[in-house]
Amino acid sequence: MGAAFEELGWEVTSLDVDPKANPTILADICSWEPLPKFAPGYFDMIWVSPVCTEYSRVLTRRPSKLEEGDRLVLRTLQIIRELRPFFWAIENPATGLLKQRPFMAGLPWHDVSYCTYGYPYRKLTRIWTNLDWAPQRRGQAELPQQGAAV
To answer: Which UniProt keywords apply (predicted)?
Structure first.
């Protein structure tokens, strides 16, 4: 997602625990403390794509560890509250269990499918967001042209 925002002229700060992702900030989000380095309101947009493994319906080789997934998403929600971006979004597979977790209840969301945007596969995705936005078909979608996103 960061590359798409960069193409539109946004300054992107990325955070990931995996060095292969080449993030701006190499850290575990559960232990990362954004304050005081990033003041509330510094980011125009925070886009989060938490690991979906524990919420996956195809996880059959072992029991899911929902508490681990929840810890990650709850920390994400805490950071969004602390940093108070103008916009925020959290994406995860629409077929997964995240949508059934009590802390996600009441958050506005939209379901989108990758095939609608030109990908050769469906991948139904749920995006929880405070954006006043409705998914559009490829070629119709518009994003703001500049800003700071994480």
So the answer is: Methyltransferase, Transferase
The kind and range of the H/E element at 69 are helix 66-83
DSSP reduced 3-state for 25: strand
Task: Note the pTM of the prediction, 2 decimals.
Answer: 0.83
CATH number at residue 84: 3.40.50.150
Q: For the CA atoms of the chain, what is the radius of gyration? A: 16
CA distance 107 to 77: 11
Sign of CA dihedral 109, 66, 31, 20: negative
Domain interval for residue 84: 2-149
pLDDT in tens, 103-134: 999 999 999 887 777 777 778 899 999 998 87
Give the contacts of 25 (CB within 8 A, at least 6 positions apart): 13, 14, 15, 16, 32
